[in-house]
Amino acid sequence: PSGAIKYIKTLEENLSLILPNLKKTINNNSREYINLINITSNNLKNKIIENNYDNKKIICMQWHKDFLEWFGFNVIYSYSPPESLSTKDILNISIAASNNEVSAIVDNLQSGTDFGARISSESGSIHVIFTNFPNAVPNTDSYLDLLKYLFKPRASDALSEISLQKGLKKIQKIPSSRKLCYPKTLDPKIISDCLLNNFNLI
Fold it and tell me: Cα(168)–Cα(137) distance, rounded to whole angstroms?
């Protein structure tokens, strides 16, 4: 969320310079958009804490590390895009996943998901897929839409699966229809439209 807010502030500054007559509107809408992000992300964070999902051990693709740690997960290992991994990197990830009671392997949709699926299968961890961009799943045109997507039943179900004890001999994999997604980056056009049009896209 902090990265998204930084993008919005940059857009606010630039749009205010380009469109000085709309500066007040842009500033007000920027503040409201940031407020909505804070409310939504903090609600999700509180939900994670209330259900004792925080501090669960996670291995993830490196672009999601900060986001997962912000929400309270314990990222014990993060990895580069799969195509850049050496044999030693792959071995280290596999060892970390097998020896540390890891709850989930979090992949990045745009970077490929086969590697995470393999590590998940080998270690008995849940395989979760995140996305960097809006519109990767239906009805998620903006950053806020994707944050809200986490509150749908698929998010609750997936978080419940992550909380399963490692003592179970078999952990059910998350069906593709219930994979968690979140955006790391914002589409400037979407945010610009929001700032200029009182969030008519939200």
Answer: 31
